[in-house]
UniProtKB/TrEMBL annotation:
SUPFAM superfamilies for the chain: P-loop containing nucleoside triphosphate hydrolases (SSF52540)
InterPro entries hit by this protein: P-loop_NTPase, PIF1_helicase
Name this protein carries in UniProt: ATP-dependent DNA helicase
CDD domains from the UniProt entry: SF1_C_RecD (cd18809)
Length: 128
């Protein structure tokens, strides 16, 4: 599952997919696999080569999302800013998490294409 917006309205926080392989960014350029960055998609060969130069031989996940698109997911920055807008903390990670289980809070407001729900322990109408 993506944890950051990559393509507004299409691949956003909460989009799910399946990791289908790992490859380097150079292999992605050769295979014409789009590269998802925090600035959006890099599909042109020139853009992709610029991104590829940053990640050298790192094996990165190629994800097939439920809408059919296949993207190489590269690390992006996650920041925490204070009230005055200054960066307090920053980390760099691939914007994916396992999605075999979601909390109610994470899934609230999402359109889920497939879902398996255990309603065996509900105790009040409307909980489902």
């Amino acid at each position: 599952m993506l944890i950051k917006n990559m393509v507004q309205g299409e691949l956003v926080n909460g989009s799910v997919g399946q990791v289908i392989r790992f490859c380097t960014s150079q292999e992605a350029v050769r295979n014409k696999t789009e590269i998802a960055t925090e600035d959006g998609l890099r599909g042109s060969e020139r853009d992709a080569r610029q991104v590829a130069a940053r990640y050298d031989d790192s094996q990165l996940p190629v994800v097939r999302f439920t809408n059919g698109r296949e993207l190489l997911c590269v690390p992006v920055d996650f920041t925490v800013d204070n009230a005055s807008g200054e960066t307090e903390a920053k980390r760099r990670q691939i914007p994916l998490i396992l999605a075999w289980a979601l909390s109610v809070h994470k899934s609230q407001g999402q359109t889920l294409e497939r879902v398996k729900v255990d309603l065996g322990r509900i105790f009040e109408k409307g909980q489902g």
